[in-house]
From TrEMBL:
It comes from Photobacterium aquae. Residues 14-154 form the Helicase ATP-binding domain. CDD domains: DEXHc_RHA-like (cd17917), SF2_C_RHA (cd18791). This is DEAD/DEAH box helicase. One of its GO terms (molecular function) is helicase activity. The lineage of its organism: Bacteria, Pseudomonadati, Pseudomonadota, Gammaproteobacteria, Vibrionales.
Amino acid sequence: MSLTLPIDSLRTAFLTHLSQHHLVVTAETGSGKSTRLPVWAAEHGRVLVVEPRRVACRSLAEFVAAERHEAVGDSVGYAIRFENYFSEQTQVVFVTPGVALRWMTENRLADFKTVIVDEFHERRWDTDLLLAMLKTLDNHRLVVTSATLDSERLTRYLGGRCLSAEGRQFHVDVRHLASDSRNMPEARHIESRVKEVLLEHYQSHRDILVFLPGRKEISQCSAMLGQALRDQIEMGLVDVIALHSSVSDQERLRALTPSDKQRIILATNVAETSLTIPGVTLIIDTGLERRTHQRNGRTVLGVHAISRASAEQRKGRAGRVADGLCLRLYGKAAPLELITPPELQREELVEPMLAAACSGYRLDALPFVDSVPDKSLAAASEKLQQMMAIDPQGEVTEHGRILYPLPIDTLFAHLITAMPDKASREAMVDLAASLSVYQKIWTPPGNEETCEKLAKWEPCHCDAMALIKMVRITDHDSLPEWLDVDKATLAEAQMLSTQMREALQLPDLDVATTVRREPWLKAVMQAAPELVYVRREKRRQALGNGYAEVSIGRDSRFADDAEAAIIFDQFALAGKKGLKQNLVLATCMAPVPLGYICELDMAQTVLGDSIATDEGIRVEHRRVYAGRVISSSWQSPEGESAARALLEMVWDGLLLEGLAERVRADIHQWNLYLALGRYQPEACTRPATVVDAKQWLTEQIETLGVESEDDLALFSADEFVFEGIPQWEREDFDSEFPYQVKLNDLTMAVEYHIGRKLVVAVYQSGGRKADPKRWELPRWQGWKVQYRKASRTIDVR
C-alpha cells in the first residue's frame, strides 16, 4: 500500500480501540476507509464487510486483492447473488446486506469476529436491521463507517468510540447554477440542462461524472450526448458510459478503469459511495435521486431531491487526482433534508419483519437508530400472518422459514410454496425470477406486424406466460429475432430460476414441466386473492380488487375484451404535485375469466330485485366482486332470501296490498308526533323512540315466521297493526299535521322541517297545472309553507 491516504492517520487509534469498543468512523469520500479498515481489522480476526451495493462489493474486493497482489478469493473475497469468491481461509469477505442477513439466520455470523457496516448513511432497511440485531446479539465488534453521518448520535447508540479522519487530497470547488439561491432540484428537462452544462465545461476537464436519478434519465441523456459529441466519439476521443446497479461487468469496468479517452460517466447514486472512479475532475450534480416513500399506505417510487449528506458524497467523487469542480444544478440555499430518511420509515416492513423473525427477533422489539412506524409494523404483521409466515406472537413458522431463503420478494416466495403441484410451482418460480431482476427482460412490440407475430407466439395475451416462455428458452439463439429481449437480463433471470429450482428440487429449466395455465392461475387466486382485479365498467383502463385501483401499464398486453386479471407486478408512482392519490400501473397481467372468481367463491352474493311470476316469486342473486356484478341469476327464494324477497314485495305493494302505505303513514306520523313533543307517557303504549318503518315491518314478518308466499297468504293486512299515536288522538293530529294532502287532481306528500317551522308540500300525482293556493291547504298556523314540484320550489301565500 504505497499510496498514502487520509484514513492512514487513524490506523494506530483504530487498532487500539477495536479490541475494546464498537467504532464509528467518519471520513470524507475518497479517504480510503472502505479499503483500509477491513485490512486493519483482519489483524484481530476474520472480517465481514457489508457493502450496500453489488457493484461496490465486487469492485472493492477486486481492488483490495490487487493491492495485496492476490487473486480474489484468497485472503480477500466477496459474496453477492450468483457469485461467491471466498473460502474458510478468506480473512476479509465483502458481502451485500442480503447475503449478510441470510448468513445471520444460519449461524448468526459466528464465523466472523468483526463486522464492518460501510456507507451506513444510505440508511437501507437491511443495514439498519443487521446493525440492530448485531447490537442486541453483542457477539461481534462492530464498525460503522460513512463519509457523512450523525456520528455522535450513532456513537451513543452503539456505546462505542468515534474516530474521524480529516483532509482531502485535492480541493473541490462548488458552484450552484440555479437562477435563485433557494431553487430546489428540478426534474423537468433535466437531460437538456445536463447537456448544456456539460458542453460548456467538458473541454477543460478530464473525466466527468454526472449524477442522474435513474436509468431512464441516463438513457435519454446518453442519447443526447451521443448526438452532440458524435464526432469526438467516432474519433475515439470521448466515451459516454452508463453506471447503475444493473450494468454489465464490461460497462462497470469501463467506468472504473482509467482510459486514454475522456470519459463521461452517467451514474445514479450507485456512484456516490465506495467506488473509486479515477480521473474525475468535474461533477455535474442534478440533485435528484429515485427513492421510495410511504404514501396512502403504499410504498411508491418517485424522484426526490437528495439530502445534504448525499450532496457532499457526490462532491467527494472529484478531487481524487487533481483539483476538481462540482456544478450543482440547484440553489445554494435550497432547503434540502440534512440526511436521507431511513428506509424503515418509508417502506413496507414485510421483508424486514420476516428477516428478523428468521433470526429469532421481533422487529418491533429491536433497538433501531430511529423509530419504526407502528402503522407499518401492524400492516407487515397482518400480511405475514395471512401468508402463515409468522404466528400471532410474531414467531416465524416453518412456512416462513421456507419462504425467507428464496432470493425474491416475500409474496412471490409465498406463491411458490403455495402451489399445489409441480407444474404450477415451476411456472411460479420462472415468473418470480423474471420479475425479480433489476431490468425489464423485454420490450413489447410497437408495430402491428410484430404484435401479430407475438399473438401467434403467445396467444393468451398474457404478460406472465410470455415471461415464462422467454425464461425457458435457454438457448438465446432460439429466441424469435423479432422479440426485443435484453439477453443479459434474461440470463440473470435464468440464473435466479435455476438457483430456486435447485433449492426446491424441481427439474432443470431445459426440461421444465409444461405450464397448465388454468390450474396454476386458480391456485394463485386462492393463495393471494388480493392480486385478482376486475375492470371498471365505465373506466376501462382502470381495474379494482375492492381495496385498491390500478391502471393498465403501457407495456402490458392485456386485451381490450378481457375483464379480469391476476396482477403479478405493479409499479407505484406518486401522483401529480398537489394530488394525494398515487398512480399505480399494472405491469405484469394474466387475464382470467370472470367465471373463475365465482367458481372459487371469491365473489359476494348480493340479493337484488324480487318479481312475481306464474311459477311464484323469483329473487335476483347477484355475484359481486370489487363493486362489479360478475354474474346474476333469478332463483326461487329460500331461507333468508325468501323472507327478504317477501318483505320487498310487501314494501312495494305487490303483496298484502295497502299494508306498506299504511305502515309508512302510521310510523311517519308517530315520528312526527315525537318530534313535536306531543308524547304522553301515561297515554302511549310504546316507548318514545323513533321507528324505522321498513325495519318494523321486517321484524313483524320475522316474528310471524313467514318463509314463503304461502305462509304470507295466511295473514291479512289488518293483522299488522302499529300502535303509535293513541287512537283517540290520531284523527285530530292527522288533521293538524296531515301525512298527505289531496285536492282536486293533485296529491301531495308533506314534509315537516320542525326546526325551521317549515312545511313543504311535495307533488306526488295529478294533472293539475296550477300551483295550490294557501286557502286550499291545512291551516298550519305559524308555519311557513312551500310547494315543490320537480326541481321548482315556491312559497305558498
